Amino acid sequence: MINYREADAKCRVEGRRKVSAWIKSVVVLKGKSVGEINIVSCSDELLLDTNVRFLEHDYYTDIITFDNTEGDLISGDLMISFDRVKENAKNESVRFQEELRRVIIHGVLHLMGYGDKTDDEAKEMRAQENKALKMFHVEHLS
Questions:
Q1: Nearest Cα to 27, choosing from 73, 89, 80?
Q2: Residue-wise over 75-89: b if at least 16 C-beta within 10 A, else e?
Q3: The total number of structural domains that make up the chain
Q4: Mutual orientation of helices 119-139 and 96-111 as an angle, nearest 10°?
Q5: What is the layout of strands, in order, in the sheet containing 33-42?
Q6: Can you give the residue range of the structural domain that contains 86?
Q7: Which residues pair with 40 in a beta bridge?
Q8: Whole-prediction pTM value?
Q9: Which of 6, 37, 72, 100 is 20 to 30 Å from 81 by CA-CA measure?
C-alpha cells in the first residue's frame, strides 16, 4: 500500500492513483512486491532537522529514505522536502510534478537496494530513475 502523508507541508502529489500504480509497476518489474510505502511531505526545515538528528548530516536535501524492507517486500518512509523539490524543479527547468516523481522514485529505488554514494552508484541510480520516469509517461499519457 502506498500512503500520502503530510508532516508540515501540503502533500501536492497530483494523480496519486496513477503515481501509486506507476510505483507498483516499477517495483514489480524488479521482481519485488510493495509492502507499505509512506510518502511524507515536509518543509526544508523539518527535513534538515531529521537529517541532523537521525543521520548526523547538517545540510538540506530533497529526500530521506527510511528503509523497512523485508526480503522482497518493499516498505519504508520517504520524507520529501517539497521546498527543495520546488527549487530543484526551477533549477532544472522542469515541472514541479516531474521533479517530484523523480524524487519519489529515487526513494523507492533506495528501498530496492540502489545506492548513490559513489560515482558509479549515482550513475546507475540516475539511469534507473530515467528508466522509471519513461515508464510513467508511456503508461499514463492519457
A1: 73
A2: bbbbbbbbbbbbebb
A3: 1
A4: 120
A5: 2-6, 33-42, 73-81, 63-67
A6: 2-139
A7: 5, 79
A8: 0.93
A9: 72
d(CA 98, CA 1): 22
Question: 6 - beta bridge partners?
Answer: 41
Strands (E), 1-140: 2-6, 33-42, 63-67, 73-81
Q: Which three cell numbers stand for residue 60?
A: 538540506
CA–CA separation, 44 and 128 (whole Å): 26
Angle at 44 between CA 11 and CA 121, to 5 degrees: 90
Span 37-83, pLDDT tens digits: 999 999 999 999 999 999 888 989 999 999 999 999 999 999 999 99
Strands 73-81 and 63-67: antiparallel
- C-alpha cell recorded at residue 35: 509492502
pLDDT digit string, tens, across residues 13-42 = 999 999 999 999 999 999 999 999 999 999
Looking up residue 130, the CATH number of its domain turns out to be 3.40.390.30
